[in-house]
Amino acid sequence: MMRVDPEKLNTKFHLAEELMTEYIGPAGSPEREEMEAKAKAWFYGEILRERRRELKMSQAALAEKVGAKQSYIARIEKGEVDVQLSSLLRIAGALGLNLQLQ
User: Fold this and answer.
1) Do residues 54 and 48 lie in contact, with contact meaning Cβ atoms separated by under 8 Å?
2) Quick one: residue 23, left, alpha or beta (phi over 0 = left, psi -120 to 50 = alpha)?
3) Average pLDDT in the 36-65 region?
4) Angle, alpha carbons 96-100-102 (nearest 5°)
5) Which of 28, 38, 61, 94 has the fewest CB atoms within 10 Å, i.e. is most exposed?
6) Nearest-angstrom CA–CA distance, 79 and 40
7) What is the DSSP letter of 79?
8) How many angstroms separate the CA atoms of 53 and 77, rounded?
9) Which pTM value belongs to this model?
10) pLDDT band at residue 11, thresholds of 50, 70 and 90?
11) Residue 9's pLDDT is what?
12) DSSP letter assigned to residue 81
């Protein structure tokens, strides 16, 4: 079994927080807040897209079910829009998802 030199590891690997601070900005900075908001929007969009596809539902069918436009559903799934909580709850409900807000 190969031995690992801890000193070499410390010079080659970085903590995610260190990289985020270096490339985006420190936690709480406007740049970091914006990046985190975009990441969350993308993540929620992925969850909704995956569930819609599991149900073999088109974006148009989902849009009709929740009273929205297909282009709005597409933008949500791409993480391009800051979706309102009421819209997110309607879409999630139409997809049979139960959101627990804490």
Assistant:
1) no
2) alpha
3) 95
4) 165
5) 28
6) 8
7) T
8) 11
9) 0.76
10) low
11) 63
12) S
